[in-house]
Amino acid sequence: MASDRPILLVEDNPDDEALTLRAFGKHRIPNQIVVARDGVEALDYLFGTGQHAGRDVADLPAVVLLDLKLPRIDGLEVLRRIRADARTALLPVVVLTTSRETQDIHEAYSLGANSYIRKPVDFEQFLLAVGQLGTYWLHLNEPSDSRSAY
Predict the structure, then answer these.
(1) 36 domain-assigned
(2) What is the DSSP letter of 112?
């Protein structure tokens, strides 16, 4: 069940991270939030490498909230690697970014993003967006149970 699995937030901006965590708290989303602050850390978490060596990689997050403009490995490359690996190919990935570049939107969907959401600048809009994300991806969406396939 998605509602008991963690959420992977991939965000390098401390202010956006804090706002996202606050919004999840305000909407009483009980899932553990795992924060990766760059693309390398996100991939290490998902594939049990680096600082996350030994982590049970079968315990996938319910959803990945992925910023695009990340240090070390950008979000589009993270998405590319998620989709290229059979263990994570079906993992829901929501791009949550400030980028309004048409090329980023097109490439994210071409690489298999499930959704592309521009971060609202207004905090109240942001709260609403995060609440809707939580409701949809954690409660309404019926995920593929890719964990049982491996």
Answers:
(1) yes
(2) T
Nearest in space to 89 (alpha carbons), one of 111, 105, 104, 56: 111
Residue 104 in domain:
yes
CB-CB contact of 47 with 55 (8 Å)? no
Per the CB < 8 A criterion, the answer to whether 124 and 93 are in contact is: no
Q: Is 146 a domain residue?
A: no
The H-or-E segment that residue 108 falls in is: helix 102-110
Threshold 0.85, pTM exceeds: yes
Domain span at residue 10?
2-141
Read off the pLDDT of residues 40-65 as tens digits, 9 standing for 90 and up: 999 999 999 999 999 999 999 999 99
Tell me the C-alpha distance between 82 and 76, whole Å: 10
Q: State the Cα–Cα distance between residues 88 and 146, nearest whole angstrom.
A: 8
CATH of the domain at 123: 3.40.50.2300
Structural domain total, the chain: 1
CA atoms of 60 and 77, how far apart (whole Å): 19
Residue of 95, 107, 100, 90 whose CA lies nearest to 148: 90
Structure tokens at 26: 């305000």
Query: Pairing between strand 93-97 and 115-118?
Result: parallel
